[in-house]
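Methods — Computational structure assignment.
A single polypeptide chain was analysed. Its primary sequence is given first, followed by the predicted tertiary structure written as structure tokens.
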Amino acid sequence: MNHLKNYHCIEMETKQGKVLIEGPVPPNRLVQYTLHEDLTSFRPPKQQKKALVEIAELEEGRIIIIRNGDLIVGYVTYLYPDPLERWSEDKIDNMIELGGIEVAPLYRAKGIGKKLLEVSFMGDEMEDYLVITTEYYWHWDLKGTGLNVWEYRKMMERLMSSVGFEPFATDDPEITCHPANCLMARIGKRVNEDTLERFDRLRFKKRYMY
């Protein structure tokens, strides 16, 4: 599959000043920026920046960022599913995963997360993809937001649905181990039946074991 990466950019006013929401950003530009010190949901900022650069270097990898000058204050990542997860057991060329989304607390307002996703799907090439996201409550900033797991889950569903993601049932143990966890997916307009059938087999492995 030819993974096109058409660049898009919008400006947005925040209490911290004007920011750019842009991407996919190539690795040679990402290395020039600093990651905000409060972007710690997945790993320490320096390690996370290294991970973002590595994802951007992948053929399918896409990094969309929120940038205040040379400071990255938010990002979302897209790449093939983690080799350790069931979603990679069938190598579906046009199925990628929203691997992580994070916005620094000082910038969380006025729908900036929605804008980050909006820029992600501005390119027509995204209609060729089935994009999945696995939401696990242990990655959520419950303390910083003051929300409980159910309020946060509803917030994430509203955020993801703004660009066409829908919840999908699954028997994946990591999802089913807690009722707040969920699998969501956005099915591009040009995704064919073969991709959907293979996705169904990944969602319900127990069904195909008999």
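Note: The domain at 8-208 is CATH 3.40.630.30 (Aminopeptidase).
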